[in-house]
Task: inverse folding
């Protein structure tokens, strides 16, 4: 199946990487971004150049700041934005949705698809779409300049599912021949709980605060140097809590070490997490931020760990390590964090485990 029209919502690192890659794979691709400078440059260049582990020039059909133009007649629309913008972009998309379109949050952080469906309900949008979500971004990448993206590495395995899960076969039919790295899993509870950013970003940032705020600043490689043996062990404790929540809902997910081996082929699952990070060539040269005011906290606390806490409360599973990191972030960054995807925001407050899984499965 070829000849589909793809729209990428978001002109940052990930959005341009995916748009360029899809175009290199022979697909028709449009790109939407709110920044006119980004759009104008992409239209002037005619497309996106990828270097690194993926090489080539991907021509775009066009780039635009007009959401209606970007979405009109598009078969597959992929949102590649920080999750702090998901709600606003979802509301902007609502009037332009067309029956039969496939919408994918790439990635969803945690519970992004649930949030999307809840906004559709609140806005009384009855358009029949296929809604999908992935647990993580396909690439490790950085922007050299607008229209040129360096790809450090590409994951071999990205958990993907539809909401509701009864649409999984339709989602797979829409994308799997072009994006075979998107591995279909049972439902979006799995993609939400397989969100590795929730594990790998907040704790290491907070536990390295003294290095980040040192004077003069201490520059270090985020994964290769920042994930020390003790920090890696703490992340694995958080991982145990995450997997306990999944078991309480009736399903299993891989350990974080198994995920790293599957995605990056950087060792074996019996190795400690810090060693897998150090073995991962896709992480070479990825430096830490010079401030705590970064998406690793401002995004991944409210839009990843907070919804995981909400799901944990439904199951009754205690999450002391996760709670400690959220509490530490809230108190260090007082007043700077969004409320995020609480149970109330997601529309799942007061649900039982059975009711939650009925929402997920459809």
Result:
């Amino acid at each position: 199946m070829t000849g589909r029209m793809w729209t990428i919502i978001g002109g940052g690192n990930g959005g341009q990487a995916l748009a360029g890659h899809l175009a290199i794979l022979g697909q028709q691709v449009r790109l939407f971004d709110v920044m006119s400078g980004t759009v104008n440059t992409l239209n002037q260049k005619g497309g996106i150049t990828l270097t690194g582990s993926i090489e080539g020039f991907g021509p775009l059909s066009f780039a635009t700041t007009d959401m209606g133009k970007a979405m009109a007649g598009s078969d597959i629309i992929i949102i590649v934005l920080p999750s702090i913008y998901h709600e606003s972009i979802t509301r902007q998309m609502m009037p332009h949705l067309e029956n039969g379109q496939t919408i994918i949050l790439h990635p969803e952080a945690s519970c992004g698809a649930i949030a999307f469906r809840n906004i559709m309900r609140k806005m009384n949008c009855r358009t029949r779409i296929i809604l999908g979500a992935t647990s993580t971004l396909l690439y490790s990448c950085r922007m050299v300049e607008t229209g040129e993206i360096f790809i450090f590495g590409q994951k071999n395995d990205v958990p993907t599912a539809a909401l509701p899960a009864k649409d999984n076969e339709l989602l797979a039919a829409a994308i799997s021949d072009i994006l075979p790295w998107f591995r279909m899993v049972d439902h979006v509870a799995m993609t939400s709980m397989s969100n590795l950013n929730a594990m790998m970003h907040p704790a290491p940032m907070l536990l390295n605060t003294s290095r980040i705020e040192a004077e003069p600043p201490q520059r270090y490689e985020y994964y290769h140097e920042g994930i020390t043996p003790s920090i890696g062990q703490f992340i694995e404790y958080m991982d145990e809590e995450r997997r306990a929540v999944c078991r309480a809902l009736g399903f299993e997910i891989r350990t974080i070490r198994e995920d790293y081996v599957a995605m990056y082929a950087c060792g074996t699952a019996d190795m400690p997490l810090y060693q897998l990070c150090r073995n991962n060539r896709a992480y070479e040269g990825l430096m830490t931020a010079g401030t705590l005011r970064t998406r690793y906290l401002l995004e991944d606390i409210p839009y990843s760990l907070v919804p995981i806490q909400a799901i944990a409360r439904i199951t009754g599973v205690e999450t002391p390590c996760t709670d400690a990191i959220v509490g530490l972030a809230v108190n260090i960054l007082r007043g700077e964090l969004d409320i995020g995807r609480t149970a109330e925001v997601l529309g799942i407050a007061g649900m039982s485990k059975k009711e939650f899984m009925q929402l997920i499965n459809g």
Summary: The chain has two domains: 5-186, 196-361.
